[in-house]
Structures are given as C-alpha cells and as structure tokens.
Write a structure and sequence with these properties.
Strand order of the largest sheet: 2-1-9-8-7
Oligomer: single chain
Radius of gyration: 18 Å
Helix content: 25-40%
Low-confidence stretches: none
Length: about 300
C-alpha cells in the first residue's frame, strides 16, 4: 500500500473510532517520517513531565541542583481514580530530587512533578528547551492545575458530562482552561518528535543528560496504550503517556535489535463522552504501528 492510501485508511479507522489524532513517526537514522496532522497543537497533559525531567537533570549536571537533596513533600490526598504515587499519599514524606524524578516521569506522579516545578518553574523549563534549539513545546503551568477539572468535581457516574463538556468546544478559548492551548501546556506531535530526536541522537543536549532522560522513559510503568504494539523481545520501548479528560497521548522511541529506531508521537482527542475507552488506547497503538511498519519497508 502506498503512503497516501495508507493514510486514507488510517484516517478512516480513527474517524470510526471517534478519535481525532495528530501523530508522527520518524526513522531516527534516515529522517524519513510519516504522519497525520503532525503540526496541530494540543494541550499536552502529563507529556510535559519529559521536558520537566530534561530541565531538572540538566540543572543537576550543571551543579545548580543536587540530586541527593531530600525535600519535604506534602501528600496529595487525592481520592479520585487516576493519580498515582505521592498524589495519593496521606502523610508527608521526605524524598530526594533524584527519586522525585523517577516518580514524576516513570509513575507519572503529579505531586512529585510539582515539587520539581517548584525548583525549576515552567518559564525556566521552556527557556531550557529553547536553549537546546527545541521549539513548539510551551510549558505554562504546574501540574496541580490538571487536577482541577470538571471530572474531579462530578460524581463518577457523571464523568460522561465532563467529557461532553471537553468535546463541545474548540482548543482556542476553550471553557475548560486545561484544554485551551493559549493557556495550557501545549505542543504538537512534530515538536515532541523533535525532542525525542534530540534525546536519542547527537544534539545540543549534553550526552549524560540525554542518557538519563532516556533511562527514565525506558522505565515508564504506564504501559497500557502503545506498549502492546511496540514491546517485544526484539525491541525496547521507552515512552511517556499523557491523559486528561478526552485527551489521550503517548510519545516514545522503539529501538529494534537490528539497530533501527523510530520516534513516535500520538496526540489524540476523543469525540466519545466516556472516561474509560480501552478501544481508543488500542486504536492509537495500531495506527502508530502501521505507520512504523510502513517506514520500515521504505
């Protein structure tokens, strides 16, 4: 199947599954890439924890922070389904910066992430990205703001109402501020593939910093979305997910035993007003894998 025919078929599958997808897959060695709306900008939810990790690790490398420094962390005490790690703790804890990096990136712990944002504010994270020549990812706010959406204010049986609200407005001037790209942390599939390229191949990011970010992504424990389509005994899948209301995202790099490597970024908006949509997660992986398989054959 040629590229145009493949993209038509995949768009049809996404439409049938109720997903608007902005995605890009790139061969990190040849630079060949294929995608669907790769430059469309969307709120990025927990994907922002990768730039946060990069900025924190780089500041440790520069000697501005000490990874062994232990900080007192107040518990998140969140009881709604979804949040992990310290976000669900009920009592204060004392945790080193290095371990907060693990919790924030690998476990997607937003409380840990906000402690790191307290050390490196959003504007500084964006500035460091620009310093490395990475544009298109904007970090505007901390992670606490992601926890205050209509879904958290409604009874679980009414979660569909929050999703209907999320679906019912455009990204510009959205009535839910976390979904308004002029106010939320935002980026595109293309911008995140550029970040992955810079982390996995020689770039202006210092090698020791890039290596450590790659290591964190390799230990990501959220493996329900694209992992089933990219993980095997002959591959390594290093990734980060992002989820917020009707947004389902994942970025990652699949490295094959033959030496080939592909960066993958899938950012989606569901048009189905439901909180749990395992079919959407599966469809994201199937479409991304079809694009990776196509590139491997070129």
């Amino acid at each position: 199947m040629n590229t145009e025919a493949l993209l038509r078929d995949l768009r049809r599958q996404l439409d049938d599954g109720g997903l608007r997808a902005c995605l890009l897959v790139r061969d990190l060695h040849t630079g060949q890439e294929v995608g669907i709306e790769p430059d469309a900008e969307l709120p990025t939810a927990s994907l922002v924890k990768v730039p946060l990790a990069l900025a924190t690790i780089e500041r440790i490398r520069r000697g501005e922070l000490d990874g062994a420094t232990a900080l007192d962390v107040q518990p998140g005490r969140i009881t709604t389904p979804g949040p992990t790690g310290l976000s669900r703790f009920r009592h204060p804890a004392r945790i080193a910066i290095d371990d907060l990096l693990y919790l924030s990136t690998c476990v997607s712990d937003s409380t840990a992430g906000d402690v790191l944002f307290g050390l490196t504010p959003p504007a500084r994270v964006t500035a460091l990205l620009h310093e490395f020549g990475l544009r298109g990812i904007t970090v505007r706010h901390t992670l606490q703001e992601l926890a205050d959406t209509p879904e958290e204010r409604l009874d679980p049986a009414q979660a569909h109402l929050a999703h209907a609200l999320a679906i019912g407005a455009g990204a510009h001037g959205h009535r839910v501020p976390q979904l308004d790209i002029t106010r939320a942390n935002s980026g595109s599939a293309h911008a995140y593939v550029e970040l992955l390229q810079a982390l996995w191949t020689p770039s202006s990011i210092p090698p020791e910093t890039a290596e450590r970010v790659r290591g964190l992504m390799a230990h990501n424990v959220m493996r329900h979305r694209l992992t089933p389509d990219f993980s095997s005994d002959a591959t390594t899948w290093s990734a980060k997910t992002g989820t917020l209301l009707n947004l389902r995202h994942e970025i990652g790099v699949v490295e094959h035993s033959d030496g080939r490597a592909f960066a993958v970024a899938v950012l989606t908006e569901s048009l189905v007003p439901a909180s749990k949509q395992p079919g959407a997660d599966a469809l994201m992986g199937q479409v991304a894998r079809a694009l990776r398989d196509h590139l491997r054959q070129l």
